[in-house]
Amino acid sequence: MDSKEVKLESLEPKKFIEEQVKAISSSVVDGVAINALSGGVDSSAVTMLGHRALGNRLKTYFIENGLMRKDEAQRIASLFKELGVAVHILDARKEFFGALKGLTDPEEKREAITQTFYKDVFGKLVREIGAKYLLQGTNYTDVEETVAGVKRQHNILEQLGIDTQKEFGYKVIEPIIQLRKSGVRKLAESLGLPEELYNRPPFPGPALATRIIGEVTPERTEIVRSATKIVEEELSNTGAFQYLAILHQDRVTGIREGKRDFGLQIEVRCWESKDALKGSPTRLSFDILERLSQRITTEVTGVVSVTYNITKKPPSTIEAV
Ligand code: XMP
Fold it and tell me: Of 125, 142, 147, nearest to 62 (Cα)?
């Protein structure tokens, strides 16, 4: 697989699509391939490429891991239905929360999600439907950050020396590995995806787990999910690169209904960035910050403190875990 970077300036989407469709068709000569669609621009673009190359021989699954945003599975499945792509929703909440139980170390949490996804959930699915290939939306930045040792991106396997054929029983095909996010957006537009998909802010593979400091439980995920909904509603018109809510582990003293409440802390981050490699916080107006704080402390049970991150990346990263 060619993994030399194709820069945005030199990307010719139509030609790139043609080449990748050809490459997928010649790799998956017969039988079926499988892919997981999360609704992010990377997996959405790969779904369309795979669909063009293989038609019904590509089986697309939305893995409901319990860590996604509110109503995400149904929303994405219906968007793709309109594009003629059937998306199967697989409920794997029990497997993911089971694997995450008791874990607090960031890299252990990522590893648990990786193993649950590739080995347990996908491994089983692949055996059931007899797929020999997994199409995956790994991009150039994912590889770069993992190889540089910044953070282990959960979709990186081969570059870490993992033989997927041997370990999980299938081969991985990565059609957009030469592109950065801006290139993937251009490609996705050319593939006919709607703007709400190709211009979507990035969302990490391990989903809301990257925004929960400490143990990832269904209850704690629900808190960050509610805060995320508010942050997305309030900040979607800022044009920022990415905006998110983080649930902290430490509690702080607050006051609720005139009484002391040792409550939860939510941190909001909103990023200006081109490719997620570097970032700086958006200079949000105080009115917006106040509205965020007001809504999160009243609408999300137990939250008594909302903070805004003013640190650049580096030394911060975009996500918290
Ligand atoms: P960080 O937090 O490393 O994030 O500054 C850089 C960009 O990548 C996204 N991100 C991930 N995406 N799997 C993914 O698919 C991951 O494990 C992961 N971690 C972070 C993040 O949202 C940001 O856009």
Answer: 125
* Residues of the chain under the 70 pLDDT cut: 1-2, 149-154, 156, 159-160
In ligand 1, the atom with minimum distance to the C-alpha of 201 is 24
How far apart CA 17 and CA 12 sit, in angstroms, is: 9
Question: What pLDDT was estimated at residue 231?
Answer: 98
Q: What total of structural domains would you count in the chain?
A: 2
Q: Is the pTM of this model over 0.90?
A: no
The answer to whether residues 36 and 67 belong to one domain is: yes
Phi-psi region of 55 (alpha: psi -120 to 50; beta: other; left: phi over 0): left
Are 94 and 153 contained in the same domain? yes
Distance CA 102, CA 98 (A): 9
Under DSSP, is residue 151 helix (H, G, I), strand (E, B) or coil? coil
Structure tokens at 54: 């293989």
Q: What is the pLDDT of residue 169?
A: 79
Ligand 1 centroid, distance to 253 Cα (angstroms): 31
Domain extent at residue 74: 8-198
Q: Which residues line ligand 1 (CB under 6 A)?
A: 145, 150-151, 153-155, 202, 204-206, 210, 242, 276, 313, 317-319
